[in-house]
Every structure is written in C-alpha cells, then in structure tokens.
Specification:
The complex is a heterotrimer of chains A (about 800), B (about 55) and C (about 700).
Chain A (H helix, E strand, L loop, with lengths): L24 E2 L2 E2 L3 H12 L5 H4 L20 H7 L2 E2 L3 E7 L6 H7 L2 H4 L3 E7 L4 E7 L5 H10 L11 H8 L4 H24 L6 H22 L1 H12 L6 H21 L6 H18 L12 H4 L3 E6 L2 E6 L8 E4 L9 E5 L2 E4 L1 H4 L5 E3 L4 E2 L4 E2 L4 E5 L28 H24 L4 H14 L3 H20 L2 E3 L3 H8 L2 E5 L12 E5 L3 H12 L4 H10 L7 E7 L3 E6 L2 E6 L1 H5 L9 E7 L2 E8 L18 E5 L7 H4 L9 E2 L4 H13 L4 E5 L5 H6 L2 E6 L11 E4 L6 H33 L6 H29 L4
Parallel strand pairs in A: 17-24, 17-26, 24-25, 26-27, 27-28
Antiparallel strand pairs in A: 1-2, 3-4, 4-6, 5-6, 7-8, 7-9, 9-15, 10-13, 10-15, 11-12, 11-14, 16-28, 18-23, 19-20, 20-21, 21-22, 22-23
Helix pairs in contact in A: 8-9, 8-12, 9-11, 9-12, 10-11, 11-12, 11-16, 12-17, 12-26, 15-16, 16-25, 17-25, 17-26, 18-25, 19-20, 25-26
Chain B lengths: L2 H25 L8 H5 L13
Chain C lengths: L3 E6 H28 L14 H33 L6 H21 L15 H23 L8 H19 L3 E5 L2 E4 L3 H36 L6 H15 L14 H28 L4 H6 L1 H23 L2 H7 L3 H30 L7 H34 L12 H7 L1 H31 L5 E6 L14 H33 L15 H12 L14 H7 L34 H9 L1 H4 L10 H4 L7 H10 L8 H22 L9 H11 L13
Antiparallel strand pairs in C: 1-4, 2-3
Helix pairs in contact in C: 1-2, 1-3, 1-15, 2-3, 2-6, 2-12, 3-4, 4-5, 5-6, 5-7, 6-12, 7-8, 8-10, 10-12, 10-13, 12-13, 12-15, 13-14, 13-15, 17-24, 19-24, 22-23, 23-24
Classes of the chains: A alpha+beta (about 800), B mainly alpha (about 55), C mainly alpha (about 700).
C-alpha cells in the first residue's frame, strides 16, 4: 500500500509527495507534512481507512495547516452561499477542486460517519461539486467547511458563485423535447410503412386509422418539441430580422397543416413522418451545439479570485468582514497564503508576495515597510498587517472591471456564417414559393397551393441548420482533446476570423512552473549536501525549488537554524556555518543590480555563488513566428524590457514588443487596434490581462491547470499545447470551410427537391426519404471532414 | 388483419409507458449526473467491506 | 442522524443460483437427447413421451425459462438490492416467487412430454400454467417495485431500467400471446386464427427473445461487468442512450419471422426495417461493454470470469449483427426453415446468455459464501471446453443450413428440381448434426464441471444469508431544492396533458375495437375454404400433441423452388379456421401445407408406423402408438362449440351430430385402408391424423388462386 519505499525517496501515504523529512510518521506510515498526517489520523479514528484502499495516495498535499473560516459565521456571507434552508436542514453546494478519484467520492459521501450532523452528501464527479444537506442546529457552515478542510477537501469559496451559474444554465427541457420528438418520430414511421410499401385493396381501413394516429403523434411534436422555433421566428420578425428559425418554423407549420388537411380530406397520407423527423433532427442539432465543460468556468472575474472576507484589526482585535464592507483606512491582517484584496500599504511584517496569478511572474517578490502592495498578490511566509489605501473596486487591478468592456454582451460580437446566409436563403425561398403559386394559379389553384407548400417543405433548411452545430461540436471535441477549451461553438468561427494576435509575456509565453533553476556557483558534493539540508527545513518556495533542483541527499543534523523571512536562512550543519538568501543576507552588501531573482550561498563565510531563477519560455514558442506571415503579432509585458533581446529569437522585430504595460494600457492597446479595424485575439494568463482579454474579439487564457484560477475569457488553453496555436488557427479556418461546403451540399439537395416541388407533385415518401438522407449526408460529411482536417493539422 | 390494430395499440401504449417513465426520470433529476453513478456502484457499503483491488 | 443498518438477502440469490445450475444441466441434457434423435431416431427409446416432437419444446422451455429465467432472477435479486441499498421488499414474496417459478417449470416438465401444448413456440404451456406464470410474474413485479420504492439511493442505475423494461414488456407480451379459449382442463384453442395468430405469436416470439434473453442480461452486464473489472462502465451516458433506443425500437422487429408468408407485405417490410435499425443500439451495448475493459486486457488474460464476459459479449455482437442480416429477404429466403436459424439462436443462447450466467455464478457464489473459488483450473477448463463446444455446435449448423437451403433451391439446367426428394438434403447434413451434438456434449460437460466446482466452493465457505450493510435513509428533497419552480410546472403541464390525452384516446379505441379485433378479420375469405370435419379436427389436435410442427412447416412460400416441390403457394384465406396456426418455423422434414391427396391413406399408415418403410433413411421417429391408442371422441362436442365461439361457422347444433360424422369418415378411411390389406379399427388415432393430413391444402386446388 505504502508508495515505493526506496532508500532515498519515501512518498507520502496520503498525498504521494516525497517525504522530505522523517518527522511525520503514524502507524508506520510516512507523511510529507503535518496536514497529511492529521487527515490520516482523523480518517483512521472514524474507521474510514478504506479511503486508501481504492486508490494509492488519494489525498491532496497540505502545505498549510492553519485554517481560518471564521468569516463563514457572518450571516450576510452565509446567506449568499447556501442553496436552501429551513427550520431543520440547510443545503449547500461546494466546488471542490481536489475531487479526482473514487476515493474522494467514497469519503465525501461518508461524511456522516465523521459528523452525524451531516445528513446527506452527493458528489458530482465531473462538476467536482459536493452537495451537502446538514442539520444547522448541530453544525454551522463554518464547522462544515472546516470539517471538509480537515479531511483535505477544502472547498473553493468565492463571491462570484460559479456553481449557481452553471446549474442555472441547464434548465431548459431540450432533452424531454428530443425524447418526445424521437418517440413520435419512431411511431409515425412505423405507421407510415403501410404507405411506403403499399396497402392492398382490402386493407384501406388501415389508411384512415394510421392517418389519424399520425396526426395525433405530430401534435406534441409541433406544439411542444417544435414550439421554440415559432417563438424565435416570431421574435426575430418583430425585430425586423430573418433568422434561420423563420424558414424552419414555416416548414414545420406547413408540414403540419398539410398533413392534417390531407388526412381529414382523405386526399393523402400527409407528411407526419417528415415533420417529426425534421423536428427531431433539429433538436438533436441544438443539443449537440450545447456542449459545455462543467469543470471549467470561463466567466471568472476578480471576485472569484479574491477572498470572500478579510480579517480587519479593530482596536487590536481581529474581525472578519465581507470584502464589500472593506473601506480605505481599514487595517487588515493577511496571513500566509492569503490574498491581498485591495491596494494597501505594508505596516508590519515581511511581505513576500506571489503575483503569479496577476502577472504570471513565478517567483515571489519582496516588499518592505511603507511600500504599496497592489491587490491580487498572495502573501507567502509570515502574517503581515496593511492599511487599505483604495477600496477593492478602485484598486490598481480591479478598476479594470469598471471599464465598459465588461458591460458589453459577450457572444454576438461577430455574426456567424449561419446568421449571415439564412437571411438571403429565406428571401429566395419565399420568392420561389410565391412564384410557383403565381405560375399555377391561373390554371389550377389546388396545384398552386400544393406547389407552394411543397416548396416550403422541401426547401426547409434542416441540413443547413444542422451543418454548423455538428461541424462545430466535432471541432470543439478535437480542440478539447488537444487541451484547448472553447467557451462555445461560436468561438470556433471567431478564431477563424482573427487577423491580429496580442500576447502577454510572463506566464503566457513563459511557464509559471518554477523548476528553471540555474546554478552559478562552485558547489562541492558536501556543499550541495549542506545546502540541501538547510533548504529542506524551510517552506519558502525558493528553498523548495532548490531542494528539488539538487535532488535528495542523506539527512544531516541541522542546528541553530534561523530564517529571516524575505532575507534568508542561517544554520549550522555538521559544524559548517551555512548562509543562504539575498546577497545582503549572505555577504552583507548588495552590489548586484541585474534583474532576475537570485539566491546566494556562503559556507563558513566563504561566498560560493548563487542560484538564478530565470524565466523559461514555453516549448513550441518558436512555432509562433510561423504565424507572422498571416497575422500581426504583438507582445505586451508588464515587466522591464531586459528580456527584449532574448525575445528577438521569437519575434523577428522588436517594434511590436511593448514593455511596462499596465493592465489598463493593455486594454487600451487592444481597443486601439480594434479601432483600426483589426480582429484581435488576446492571449494572456493573469488578472492583469483580464481587461485585454475582455476587450479583445477573442480572449484566450493560458494556464497550467485548468482548475486553477484563470481570468474571464472565451477560451482556456493548457500551457502544454501552447505550441499548437498555429495548428489551432489553421484548423479553425478549415472548420469554417467545411461549414461552407456542407452548406453547398444542402443547397444541392434543396434544388433537387425544389425541381419536384414547384411542379406541385411531392409524394410523402419522397419527402420522407429526402429529408433524412440530406441530414445524414450533412452529419456524416461534417464529422468526417472535420476529423480529416484535424489529421491534416496533426491534431490528435 | 384487424389484429394489427390491437398489436399497434399494445406497442404504442407500452412505448407511452416508457416515455412517461423517461419524463419522470428527467423531472426527478435521474439524468442530471451521468458519470458519478457508474463509479459509485464500485464502492461497497457492506460493514466489513471486502474491497478487492 | 444515523445511517440505517440493514441486511442484503443472499439466501434467495443462492437459491436462484442453485436452480439455475440444476435446470441448466437438465435443459441442456434434454437438448443433447433431441439433437441425437435428429440422426438416430431410436434415441427416443421407442417411447412417445421422449420423442422429438414432444421434448424439443421441453428443451427450449427448460433452457429459456428455467435456466436463463432463474439466472435472471439470481442476477436481479443480487444487484437490485445493492444498487438500491435496500433488502428486497418482502422475503415472503421472494420465496413465493422462487418456489412458484420452480413449480411452473416442474409442471412444464410434466405436461410437455404428455403432449399438452398450445404449439405456440416458447409459449407451449397450456392455459392453467399461463395463469400461474402471470401470477408469479406479478409477485416478482411487486417485489421489485416495492424495493425501488423503499430504496436508499436516489439514482436508479441503468441496470434497473433494463430490469423494469423486462418486467413490463414480458407481462404484456405473455398476456397478449395467451389469449386462448379453454376446451378442457389442459386443452385450449388460440383466439386468433391463421395469419393473425401467426403475427401475434411472432410479435411475442421475437420480443420474448428481446426482453427475456436480452434486456435483463444487458442490465446484469452493466452491473456485473464493472464490478468484475473493478472499473466504471466505459460510458454511462451511452448506456442510458442504449437503453432508451433499444426500448423504442425492439418492439416492432417481430414480423421478420414471417417473411414470404401471407402476412401483408408492408408488415413484413416493417419488421425488416426495425430489425436493421436494431443493430445500432445492440452494438452500442456490446461496444460499451468491451471498451470498459480497454487498458485492462492484462486482467482479462488471467481472470477467467472476464474471459467468459468477453466471449459472451462478442457472441452477443455476432448474434445481433446476424439477426438483422437474416431478416433481409434475400438472406432469409435461404436461411429460414434451416439449421442456420438454429445456429443463430445458439450463438446467442450458449454464448451470450450461457457465458454471462457462468461468469456471474463464478463471481457471485464465492462472494455470498465469503470464500474463494474452489478451483480456478476447473473454471478455465470450463471456459475452454465451453468455447470449443460453441464452435463445434455453430460451425456445423451454419454449414448444414447453407447446404440444405441451397440444395432445396437448386434446379437442373432443364429447369427441374435437382433434388426433388427432400430426404436427400436431410441425409446430406446428417454428419453435421452428429458434430453438433458433440459440441453440445462439450458444452454440457463444462456446465457439469462448473456445478461441481461451485458445490465445492459452497462447501468450503459458509453462506452469509444476511449480509450487513448500512446507508443513509433517503429524505425527500425539500420543495425549493427540487428545481420545481412555478413556471416550470406550468411549462410542464401541456405535454403531460398531451400524453394523458393520447393514452385515453388509445385505450378508448381499444375498448371499441376489442370485440371486432378478436373474431372478425378483413382477410379475403375464400369460398372454397371450409371448416375441418370433426375427425380432421381431432386429427389436427393429435398433430399438435405430437408436435409435428416442430419439424414440418405448413406454409408454401412463393418461390418457384417451393411451388415446384410442394404445390400452390399459401394464401391468407386458407388459414382462417386454423386455431392455432401451424406454420412452424423449421423444416427438418418437408412442408405439409399441400400434403392432402399426395399419397394414399395406406402410405400414410405405413409411414407413420415406420417412416423407413416408405422413405429409407428417414430420420422421422415411428409413431406406432398412434396405431394402438384409441381416439378420445368425448371431447368433440366441446371442441366444436369452442371453435364456433371463435367464429368457425359450424351450423348451430352441429356438435350433437359431430361424432356421427366423425365415425362415418373414420369408417371410410378404415375401409379404404382395408383395400390395401391393412386391418385397423376405425377408432384409432392414426385414422384421425390420416384424415387431417389428407385434408391439408386441398381446399383450393392449384391455379385456382384467391382474390389477393
């Protein structure tokens, strides 16, 4: 059970990380930290150790072991979070990123064993959600969350409740409508077979019977399943616009009316089968188009990143208050791993702020007393006190969200191909229909009407309506497989229309995983051993990086270890005096001015050299300059320009590289390009790009873990597939071409049909065959073509 | 062949029963989560759960 | 709030398990016996109760309703409890269900050899047993739904949906196909006649396969396969889709059993179309099952249970692909009535049903006995001998099917039948039949080994009759939480009304039509077609009793090869008085639809006494008991009355003089036989059956076609 017990590496029984120390052991099981150990303890006490039998190391690593959820006793906050409450029970749904295996499922649904006040737990695996019903007399929300936290499943609680939005999204009855349509379709087909294969003379009585049943079945199809087509058609007419739903609604209506008429007057069998089939396929198309990712949210803004509440200090006492009540002048206390919610001045303690989610900058930054720290940074190390100088909404970053870009409706920025063509299509269709009436009218009225209806039936743009959804969803799933997640199918077309690409630097074209350590020092084997042992005792991110860089050595006794937060560590190992940290800390002076983070080392006072932590560009970045023929490329960076010349490797000229860009600058820059008529795609990662992402015609957020925070965007790209960007763009163009092609195909079908229709002679069988055949051709063509295109672009 | 009326009737009624069942399922959220149940059945609830790996 | 402690009922599961194994062995042994009789008729031990015509139904009933039936209940009772986190609704009902079902089977084992049969395939049991089946089925239903209602798990896993479908559909099918009018305690006539009866029978016959041999097993596959492989089903979404698709398509595939018969053309085409459509959902299920094992094939290599599952699923895939193919007219023209069909169903039965059952037994028995399987070696021996058995069975039968199908259609260049004598084709395929019985033997051997293995397993362990478990009780969702806001309910109303309306209307039409449905029929009647004489009627019932229709069809398909061989092809109008229809589904011997007048009475007499006298090499058993047994004429009155109730135009009061006519006709035949120096009393059964055979198809003479 216990993971690979090699001499060197021992992995944590709970989370599977390497155990860097021997200190956490229980029931001869090793743990990497106190957190993991405590979880194990709790579970074993409640006989829940089966948790560890379903999967190896199911737990999450527990860097921090202090828990602060006091704000969850604030009624104002609680009321925002819970789904439902009455005298007895409260129901709440949490988003828990760590849910990942059957063990999680098993444990979370057994919460009751740990605390009987929990009545009922249900996990939704794909959404990573946990729905809990609990007795709020015996357990309040705070205790509940603490319980979850204690077993290693900390819910991600934010004011912008992603969960509720998602659940709200899935409230239409599409599936039911499809079911009804499908059911009726099946039965109507069954009842139409006699017509297809001919009823012998002595079975006429069936005709009526089947006819009536058909009408009966088409009722729910038209008035329930097909309703929204009429609604949408009508609304668009009121808005003086013709969308594809108009001819569809027309087709449905005509089919129905004519069916009823023929059955009543015994003049024919009607088109019930075509009608039901049409609606059924249309709805399936709708369904396919509605592909969504439950585990990703594209709508996050700073509220989902910032804490729900913050600890203020009122006359030497801590008091949690909701973020909304935080005003300038408040003193706030920020502990290790907490986020600074508003621009504030550092009053007390050593701030070592990690801005990775803001700028993408991997390495934490030192701040000293009196400095202003911008909102969005995450404090690492000791607790600090600050004074708020700007309200949350007015802070350096968050003021972005006051920009009108964020009030703009997102999706209809570009008209989709479908919208464009359907207008003309409808007009042409009506013209033909009316023409055919006028042609027959003088000679034969009935035939005229027959022709009119026949035209509307045959030319009903079913295939056209289906080509886009099926192509798009096929494309979407291919992007999906290549770790590129699009918000919805419309984005594919937007992607194809792009002509200008703007990129953020740090975190976007550089990786934010911080394993890129350079050793600029002469370290003997012993030195390495010493450094390793010292760093092992520090939780500082840089120390951990150094440990990982050096690999593991045998443990040595470490004494008189003192860690000066933000400066460095001093310790004696085997009698050696080891100093690790800033130049100031190690050698007493600081003359190095070059950029980049460095950690210096001295042993027994002799300076040995330093570790440098430089940026690492994402592999595949070089593919980017292939884009330069077809696209305008720009780079916007918040940093100094000391990397300008490294970047020339990737960008032929430096004219398009802009540095020292504030979030607002980025937003404005994009706006400027758009005014010049450019279709701009913004690729960014951090909160500081949020404005630009929003302003651009197509915002792509790059992240190394899709479940982590990423700013609101139209698409989320996993850093690993950054190099495939050119392929993605190519492929999106292919998909649009495929849509055009399938449009032509469906047109040809329409013409074939029309040539019959205008004569007024349209047999039900013909219609019943033509409709599905065209549909099937379109569906198979689009999906095949799409996958072929994907192959061509070397997308798995 | 009047028996065909009868058989068709039977089939349609059967189908309707299932259709209604489907609606019940939709309304009571049977189909809201179409992944977790498949994992859930693998977990034993017996007191002395014999969980083979 | 504390979780509730409860106990799973393993005892009932164990019982059904035992029944499965025992009946399996019995049913398959009978199968082996009938198989051998097909090349050495002597295997009937010169005894009418063990003769092919009577025990072939016993074989089918035993394997379908006893072996597979008990296996289903075993699987359902095990998985249902665990999926719903609840003990079965009522132990009493469980036991009634178990013992009732066994009783039904025993009664079948008694009545079928006695020749008490309705002659409807897979529904041979007579009316009292039909009623018993209905009752027990209801008990099962109450027990299942009761458990569903008191469940502790809100979500109904897909397997449960399959079980529900099985219950509902089988109930309807069984009732519809059991509309029969009792004549005596163990004799009844089907309400419908001829074509209509045929359609009903095969609407049932096919759906019985669908909803008894398929849906419950799919349900079990969806539960047990993930458990065995300890990994979730490949795509749960797909499995749900699979279920609903299957449900809505299956019900109408039935008519493909009646291609080229007098069933209306469009009804046949309908059967074909739906059969073709069935490929999609069926394969959906198979693929979902097999893909569940993707990346776990190493497991399959050393886990015999998974091996069984894989072969089972593959067999399912083959059978569900072959089925639609067979329902294509061109293929059907060759395959129908031949051994091809036998091969087809056995691939399904031996592979899919059999192997899944074995896998489940091997997996489940050790668990409820809290022990390990006694011998893995034996199990894998079972697997290999079983697979070998299937091959040895199927391959020769396919071969035999093609051979015979083609031989009977073959013409010489001069345009006359190459093999005018049916017997030639029979003799040609005898070696294949020998091989087939060897295959069957292998398979049976495997089952016996399994039985031993399981017994030893049970002996080394101890049954956990009541397995403890605990789960939270299921509270009703609070109103607000149940996303039922007012506008949604409002939105839902119309469709509900619509459906309600539909049902009402349909039921209305039903009630209205029912009377006309059963009796009147708008089939073109043929003036020449007259009701059977009392003697013929009695003879017909003997024909049914002896199960002649198991080997002899009574419908000539409109092919030149058949009209040449048998005579004018059959017309719907000819069968209007046939309660039940006797078209049969297999031609081990020649078709008899136009048998009347082909040979003299004496020929029939001798042929029944010893077929090999008249046609050397024939594999038809001797029916010498017909020569000695006296015809029971006491039933004539009741039969005439019953027939009249069903719309056969016997003159009022005819029943009183029926026996007089019977004697008169019998005497004539006896006298005619005497001219051929055959001394036989005119009250023997053989007289009656000769009368019937001589009547067959004589109503309309060739080239006097009916108004079609």
């Amino acid at each position: 059970m216990t993971g690979s017990p090699t001499i060197e590496k021992i992995s944590c029984y709970h989370c599977g990380d390497d155990c860097l120390t021997e200190t956490y052991i229980l029931d001869d099981k090793h743990f990497c930290c106190h957190g993991c150990k405590s979880v194990y303890q709790l579970l074993s006490e409640s006989q829940l150790c089966n948790y560890y039998t379903y999967n190896d190391h199911p737990g999450a690593t527990r860097a921090r072991i202090d828990r602060r959820f006091d704000y969850l006793s604030e009624p104002s906050i609680v009321s925002q979070l819970i789904d439902y409450t009455d005298q007895q029970v409260t129901m709440v749904t949490f988003y828990i990123p760590h849910i990942h295996c059957s063990s999680c499922l098993w444990l979370l649904e057994k919460l009751n064993k740990i605390n009987p006040a929990v009545h009922y737990c249900r996990v939704d695996f794909l959404k990573k959600q946990l729905n809990i019903r609990f007795d709020h007399h015996r357990l309040n929300l705070q205790q509940l969350v603490e319980l979850l936290y204690d077993i290693g499943y900390e819910p991600l609680i934010s004011l912008q409740d992603v969960i509720k939005e998602q659940n709200a999204a899935t409230k239409d009855h599409l599936v039911q409508k499809i079911a009804v349509a499908g059911f009726c379709f099946g039965n109507v087909m069954l009842l139409s077979f006699p017509e297809y294969f001919g009823i012998s003379a002595y079975e006429q009585s069936f005709r009526q019977f089947f006819g009536w049943l058909n009408v009966l079945f088409s009722l729910p199809v038209v008035f329930y399943s097909g309703r929204e087509y009429f609604v949408s058609a009508w609304q668009n007419l009121r808005r003086k616009s013709l969308n594809i739903d108009f001819p569809l609604a027309l087709g449905i209506a005509v089919l129905f009316v004519r069916t009823v008429f023929e059955v009543i007057t015994h003049t024919g069998a009607g088109f019930a089968d075509t009608l039901c089939g049409l609606v059924f396929f249309l709805l399936v198309g709708k369904f396919v188009q509605k592909k969504t990712y439950h585990h990703i949210s594209f709508e996050r803004d700073y509220r989902s990143f910032f804490p729900v509440a913050v600890n203020t200090i009122v006359d030497e006492k801590e008091k949690p208050i909701p973020l909304s009540d935080l005003h300038t002048g408040y003193r706030i206390l920020i502990r290790n791993n907490e986020i600074i919610p508003a621009d504030a001045i550092l009053l007390k303690g050593h701030a070592l702020v990690d801005f990775s989610f803001v700028t993408g900058e991997a390495v934490p930054i030192n701040k000293t007393w009196g400095e202003i720290i911008y909102a969005g940074g995450r404090q690492t190390g000791e607790a600090i006190e600050l004074e708020v100088v700007k309200p949350v909404s007015q802070s350096y970053l968050t003021q972005l969200w006051n920009n009108e870009a964020f009030n703009r409706k997102q999706d209809n920025r570009m008209q989709t191909f479908n919208q464009k063509v359907s207008k003309y299509f409808t007009i042409v269709l009506l013209v033909i229909a009316i023409a055919s009436v006028l042609f027959w009218l003088p000679t034969n009225i009935n035939r005229g009407i027959a022709a009119f209806t026949a035209v509307l039936i045959v030319a009903c743009p079913c295939a056209l309506a289906l080509s886009t959804p099926f192509t798009m969803s096929a494309a979407l799933s291919i992007f999906d497989r290549n770790l590129f997640y699009l918000k919805n199918t419309a984005v594919v077309e937007q992607l194809a229309a792009i002509d200008t690409i703007v990129m953020d630097k740090t975190g976007t074209i550089t990786t934010s995983d911080n394993d890129h350590v350079q050793l600029n020092a002469q370290l003997s084997g012993i030195d390495r051993e010493l450094v390793y042992n010292v760093c092992m005792h520090s939780n500082h991110p840089l120390s951990r990086m150094i440990c990982r860089y050096l690999g593991s050595y045998k443990r040595l006794p470490v004494t008189e270890l003192t860690e000066a937060a933000g400066r460095g560590i001093t310790a004696s190992v085997n009698g050696y005096q080891v100093r690790i940290g800033s130049e100031q800390h190690v050698s007493g002076y600081s003359r190095d001015t070059s950029a980049g983070t460095k950690v210096h080392v001295s042993v027994d006072g002799n300076y040995r050299g330093y570790f440098a932590f430089a940026h690492q560009y994402r592999d595949g970045l070089k593919n980017i300059n292939n884009l330069e023929q077809d696209y305008k490329l720009y780079l916007l960076s918040g940093d100094q320009d000391h990397e300008r010349f490294e970047l020339i490797r990737f960008f032929k000229t430096t004219d398009n590289l802009f540095f020292n860009q504030s979030p607002q600058d980025k937003l404005d820059f994009i706006g400027k390009l758009q005014q010049q008529g450019a279709k701009v795609m913004m690729i960014g990662d951090g909160l500081n790009d949020a404005g630009a992402l929003k302003q651009s015609d197509l915002g792509i957020a790059v992240t190394d873990n899709v479940n982590n925070f990423s700013p609101g965007s139209d698409a989320i790209m996993d850093g690993r597939s950054f190099g495939r960007l050119p392929a993605f763009l190519q492929f999106s163009k292919d998909t649009v071409r495929i849509i055009h092609a399938s449009f032509l195909i469906s047109l040809t079908y329409n013409f074939i049909g029309l040539s019959y229709a205008v004569t007024g002679k349209l047999s039900p069988l013909f219609a019943a065959i033509l409709m599905p055949v065209s549909t099937v051709t379109i569906i198979s063509f689009t999906s095949l073509a799409t996958h072929f295109a994907a192959k061509k672009r070397k997308l798995s | 062949m009047s028996v065909i009326y009868f058989l068709i009737g039977c089939s349609v009624v059967l189908a309707l029963i299932f259709l209604i069942a489907f609606f019940w399922a939709q309304r009571t959220g049977q189909n809201e989560d179409l992944y977790t149940p498949s994992v859930r059945i693998l977990l034993d609830d017996s007191d002395d759960a014999d969980t083979e790996k | 709030m504390q979780p509730e402690k409860f106990y799973y009922d393993n005892k009932i599961v164990r019982n059904f398990g035992i029944a499965t194994v025992i009946w399996g062995i019995i049913g398959m042994t009978v199968g082996l016996i009938v198989a051998i009789q097909l090349y050495s008729p002597g295997m009937n031990m010169g005894n009418q109760y063990t003769t092919f015509g009577r025990i072939r139904p016993l074989h089918t009933n035993a394997v379908i309703f006893a072996f597979v039936g008990n296996a289903i209940f075993m699987g359902v009772y095990y998985s249902l409890q665990r999926l719903l986190k609840a003990r079965m609704f009522s132990d009493l009902l469980s036991n009634i269900h178990f013992w009732g079902w066994q009783l039904i089977i025993v009664s079948a084992v008694i009545t079928l050899p006695l020749g008490l049969t309705t002659s409807h395939e897979y529904a041979e049991l007579e009316w009292p047993i039909d009623i018993a089946i209905t009752l027990i089925w209801v008990v099962f239903g109450i027990n299942m739904f009761g458990t569903i209602f008191k469940r502790r798990e809100r979500h109904l896993y897909v397997a449960i949906w399959f079980y529900i479908a099985t219950f509902v559909t089988i109930a309807v099918l069984h009732i519809v196909n059991s509309f029969e009018l009792p004549v005596s305690a163990f004799k009844s006539y089907m309400v419908y006649a001829g074509v209509q009866d045929a359609l009903v029978q095969w609407w049932y016959g096919h759906n019985a396969v669908a909803f008894f041999l398929t849906t419950p097993y799919l349900g079990m596959m969806y539960y047990f396969l993930p458990k065995m492989a300890n990994r979730p089903i490949y795509s749960y979404k797909l499995s749900i889709l699979h279920f609903w698709a299957l449900i809505f398509i299956y019900i109408w595939a039935g008519p493909h059993h009646l291609l080229y018969t007098t069933l209306p053309g469009w009804a046949q085409s309908l059967g074909i179309a739906f059969s073709i459509m069935l490929i999609a959902p069926s394969w959906g299920g198979m693929i979902n099952g097999l893909l569940t094992l993707r990346g776990a094939w190493d497991k399959v290599r050393d886990d015999v249970i998974l091996k069984f599952m894989v072969v089972g699923l593959t067999a399912y895939g083959m059978a569900t692909f072959e089925g639609p193919m067979l329902s294509l007219k061109q293929v059907n023209a060759i395959g129908h009535f031949t051994d091809w069909i036998i091969a087809h169903v056995h691939v399904g039965a031996l592979g899919w049903n059999g192997f899944l059952t074995f896998a489940i037994l091997y997996w489940l028995i050790p668990r409820i006995y809290k022990t390990q399987l006694y011998s893995k070696k034996m199990a894998s021996f079972h697997f290999w001998i079983g697979t070998l058995g299937i091959l040895f069975y199927a391959v020769p039968m396919y071969w035999a099917g093609f051979t015979q199908g083609l031989m009977l259609k073959e013409f010489t260049p001069e345009g006359i039948l190459k093999y005018p004598n049916f017997l030639e084709s029979t003799l040609r395929i005898i070696p294949m039949h020998v091989m087939r019985s060897v295959g069957g033997g292998f398979y049976l051997l495997g089952v016996i080994v399994m039985a031993y293995n399981l017994v030893r397993t049970a002996m080394q362990g101890k049954l956990v009759a009541n397995e403890a478990a605990q789960a939270m009780p299921l509270e009703p969702l609070p109103k607000a939480a149940k996303e039922g806001t007012w506008h949604r309910t409002l939105e839902r109303k119309p469709i509900q009304l619509m459906i309600a309306a539909l049902i009402v209307i349909l039921i209305g039409t039903f009630v209205e039509l029912m009377p006309t449905l059963t009796i009147s029929s708008n089939i073109p009647t043929i003036a020449a077609v007259k009701p059977y004489t009392p003697l013929e009627l009695q003879g017909r019932d003997i024909y049914i009793r002896e199960g002649c229709s198991n080997c002899h069809s009574q419908t000539v398909r409109p092919f030149r090869s058949e009209t040449e061989r048998y005579g004018e092809y059959s017309k719907a109008g000819e069968f209007v008085y046939d309660h039940p229809f006797l078209w049969g589904s297999k031609r081990t011997g020649p078709d008899l639809a136009r048998e009347g007048g082909k040979y003299g009475n004496a020929w029939h007499y001798n042929h029944l006494m010893d077929p090999r006298l008249m046609s050397p090499g024939s594999i038809m058993p001797n029916y010498d008991w017909l020569l000695t047994q006296t015809l029971d004429t006491t039933t004539t009155v009741a039969k005439i009355n019953a027939m009249r109730t069903l719309g056969v135009p016997y003159a009022p009061g005819y029943e009183k003089i029926a026996n007089r006519d019977l004697d008169k006709q019998a005497k004539e035949i006896a006298a005619n036989l005497y001219t051929d120096h055959i001394k036989i009393k005119n009250d023997k059964e053989v007289i009656a059956i000769i009368a019937y055979l001589q009547r067959l198809g004589t109503d309309i003479k060739a080239n006097k076609t009916a108004s079609k």
